[in-house]
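Section 3.1: Structural characterization of target chains.
Under the original work plan, the team committed to producing a structural model for every single-chain target entering the pipeline before any wet-lab resources were allocated. The record below documents one such target. The sequence was received from the expression subgroup and is listed exactly as submitted; it comprises 233 residues.
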Amino acid sequence: MFYDLHIHSCLSPCAEDEMTPNNICNMAVLKGLNLIAVCDHNSTRQLDAVSAAAELAGIRFLFGCELQSIEEVHVLGLFNSSAKAHQIQQWIDSRMPDIPNREDFFGKEQLLNSQDEVIGSESRLLLVSLNASLSECVDEIHACGGRAVLAHVLDRKNSVTTQLGFIPMDLAYDGLEVKSDLQKQEVLMTHPWIHAEDTVWFNDSDAHRLVDIAEAEHDMSEETYQRLWGDTA
């Protein structure tokens, strides 16, 4: 199945207002995707609406979030139920600094329903580091029944390699997100303790605009999908 598991909605202040639940899902269908996840910054509050839109559009959906650790490393949390997403939101709320958002500077943080109607907004700035280390973020994702994927591991200032200099050997992540096979080979070359066959690799868009949602290029087999989730219900 063709996938894109790192898409931002208009709840993320850095995403365009066009990133509504139905626009995201309908664009995913037009692009030929079968499975998507929305991973907003430090929030899961938009996901129920996107899940309903995905069901209407006929595509599979995973509940996600993009946590920013105290080291400013981005890690995706992927969950296969709304209940698990709600569970980690409680933890996020307990670890997120209470810094007001400035729409004029950072952008809107809009909450929409499944009909793309604005029903509220997030008053706190989501583009912040949680009061939790990277390992604590990974552990909490697991505690809530999710899977932890290190985001854009060789890109941008918030990658694990940019912030820490390397991917820790003892970090219990479940997957690595790269942008190309070339990046995958670079990860393997610079981290000899990482083995290609033992790692679940993701190639996602990190889309903040509809046009940037991935084309049907990256395929995940049902076997790999089940390998990721194991016996998790």
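The beta strands are 3-7, 35-41, 60-68, 74-79, 110-112, 118-121, 147-150, 175-177, 201-202.
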